User: Fold this.
Amino acid sequence: MRPGPAGVRGYTLVALLVGMTVMTVLIAASLPLVSTQVQRSREEELIFRGLQYAEGIRVFRRRYGRYPTSLREMLDVRPRTLRKLWKDPMTGQADWILVTLGTGVPLPGGGSGIQGKGKAAPTPAPQPTAGAFGPPGGAASGAVLGPITGVRSRSTKKGFRSRDGRDVYSEWVFTEQSLTNPSGTGPVTPGGAPGPGLIR
Assistant:
């Protein structure tokens, strides 16, 4: 005996529910893969942008005989040594931690330097002094920042790869030395960068 119209509708509803359940399971299974791919893509972009800053700093030092005092300075000088002010792809913000000369630690106040005011025209032989970092507060106080030798991310997320034995994004430091070891798969020779005023 053939099912009536109500029975056909019942079978259709069951088939629809089964199909939706299968689709939901497949989507749930694929979400981690998509999330992983997005993070890997951002990780690649972090390396690219970090090395762009490192190259800009290297060119600035070679051209002007010193390190820049802010990230914006590399963009404002003519000829510029940086194509644009890159955001940190891991945070989506222009909130890089700046690495300073000699210490390898963030500047006081954690300022990014991107919001620095004015156009500091570089001169051939300025030397950093004891007060070169300015008062605490960094960019927020309008103080001159620097000398800047590199950048690193603020993200404390663990990466899929390791750079110089470190797998947390905020521990990946991008300086001139990174350019000789862009993959970050091995140790970087310490003291590889000359002091300010010295040009290789």
Helices lie at 5-64, 71-76, 176-180. Residues 105-144, 186-200 have pLDDT under 50 and may be disordered.
